[in-house]
Amino acid sequence: MTNLSSFRLALDRDTRVDQGRLWASLMAMAEVGPGIAGGNNRQALTDEDGAARTLFARWCQEAGMEIHVDQMGNIFAMRPGTDPDTAPVCVGSHLDTQPAGGRFDGILGVLAGLEVVRTLNDRGIRTKHPIVVANWTNEEGSRFAPVMMASGVFAGVHSVEWAYDRQDRTGIRFGDELERIGWKGKMPVGSLKLKAFYELHIEQGPILEAEGTQIGIVTGGQGLTWLQVNLQGRSAHAGSTPMARRRNAGLGASRVMELVQQVAMSHQPYAVGTVGRLELRPNSTNSVPGSAELAIDIRSPDATVLAAMEASIRHGVEAIAGELELTFTISRLQHAEPVAFDEPSVSTIRNVAASLGYTHRDIVSGAGHDAYWLSRVTPTAMIMCPCIDGISHNEAEDISPEWAAAGANVLLHAVGETALVDACTGHP
Ligand code: GLV
Ligand code: MN
Ligand code: MN
Fold first, then answer.
1. Spacing, Cα 67 to ligand 1 middle (Å)
2. How far is 145 from 139, CA to CA, in rounded Å?
3. pTM
4. Model confidence over 335-392: pLDDT tens digits?
5. Does 373 lie in the same domain as 311?
6. Atom of ligand 1 nearest to the CA of 105
7. Which residues carry a binding-site annotation for Zn(2+)?
8. Residues above pLDDT 90, as percent of the chain
9. Is 122 among the domain residues?
10. Where does Zn(2+) 2 bind (predicted)?
11. Phi and psi at residue 233, in whole multiples of 5°?
12. Closest CA to ligand 1's atom 2
């Protein structure tokens, strides 16, 4: 039975997710790989990431889903549809965190997907299309660069072999670590063809909370480029080497940090620039640093601005190195153009938010998301909910149970519209 009246009957506007259950799942997941200040340290492919995956897979199996794992360790928990020949509607995000990460960045999108399925199960609602809840491996990119790695492989942006060869700072290969934690699957990456992808995520910025708006309709996201700069000088004694005779890579690094700041400031309000990682060698109080490695993150919603920023930084690094008698290399670790999401999918989210009575506004995402790469291979849109003070990539990251549930309700109804409610027994 596929008709509109059954859809209305089965999934009317009063149907809501179970807020308490969603929150309890979020809190239980936050117990896995705790940080030191109330958040999480569950970096990609650590034992803690493995434990989070096992917990998620168990919950999905308890909700009647089949678990599929691809060669990148992406987990696809599948709730069958009534028509086995149709492509799944996918929802999800990531369970890995920053080294000092929050409890919701990524996790909300995965567990809200599970809550959607649990809610449909509670009401005996079947959909024509299967529903897949995905956990994308290594979204954060802090242990293994780049960000959004495995969704990028899924979308054909990177090859599996290239991804396997990425190393963390201790030289451990991504592929070896994926195998070690037991989540290297057999399914060819990208072989699952999707009807649509929806990702619910916390805003990670201050706009929605400041306005008192419940739902962000994400129309697209900023482009981003990561650059690694290596400066080579000469390590020397901090006491006996005259200032004029130094080739100080640490001083060079500090000037590059200032350069990134100036470049971003010269493109306001359409640019941000950050040096989030800096390593000096030998990193000893009484040695002039002989080498420095910096990772630069620049972003803009405007591709032209992003390109201009990169060019300015490259020229600036060259000038700084020249002045300080350093040699240097600059390599791109990551580049993603600004993204515009699929307009019909964005409209679906907007209409659903309005019909559920939520206050909402269009918003451009400042952060990177797996949805960016997914948008290359399937119609994609994102939903955002507020977070306290816009704080994220910080253990203090926080949201309210009501905000989480509002986002999950929009996700539920967007999935219902897209996966096509086909039958409702009214019984699980
Ligand atoms: C992902 O967390 C990003 O860097 O935006
Ligand atoms: Mn995230
Ligand atoms: Mn993040």
1. 26
2. 9
3. 0.93
4. 999 999 999 999 999 999 999 999 999 999 999 999 999 999 999 999 999 999 999 9
5. no
6. 2
7. 94, 105, 140, 201, 393
8. 94
9. yes
10. 105, 140, 393
11. -125, -130
12. 140
pLDDT at 5 exceeding the cut of 60: no
- The domain containing residue 364 runs over which residues? 19-221+338-420
Ligand 1, from 144, 147, 335: best to mutate by most atoms within 8 Å of Cβ? 147
Amino acid identity for residue 351 in this structure: N
Please say if the pLDDT value at position 425 is more than 80: no
Tell which one of 94, 97, 136, 140 to mutate to probe ligand 1, the residue whose CB is within 8 A of the most ligand atoms.
140
Q: Which atom of ligand 1 is nearest to the CA of 297?
A: 4
pLDDT digits (tens, 9 = 90+) for 153-210: 999 999 999 999 999 999 999 999 999 999 999 999 999 999 999 999 999 999 999 9
- 140 CB within 6 A, ligand 1: yes
pLDDT per residue as tens digits for the range 57-102: 999 999 999 999 999 999 999 999 999 899 999 999 999 999 999 9
CA distances, 263 to each of 212, 300, 311 (Å): 32, 12, 10
- List of E strands, 183-322: 196-202, 215-221, 223-232, 236-237, 272-281, 287-288, 291-300
Protein residue whose Cα sits closest to atom 3 of ligand 1: 368
Determine the distance separating the centroid of ligand 2 and the alpha carbon of 201, expressed in angstroms: 7
pLDDT value at residue 12:
85
Query: What is the β-pairing status of strands 215-221 and 360-365?
Result: parallel
40 and 180 co-located in one domain: yes
402 shares a domain with 301: no
What pLDDT is recorded for position 7? 45
Ligand 1 centroid – CA 337 distance (Å): 14
309 and 394 fall within a common domain:
no
In this structure, are 206 and 267 located in the same domain?
no
Cα dihedral 40, 44, 45, 48, rounded to 10, equals 10
Q: Ligand 1: distance of its center to the CA of 121 in Å?
A: 33
Measure 4 CA to ligand 2 centroid, in angstroms. Answer: 35
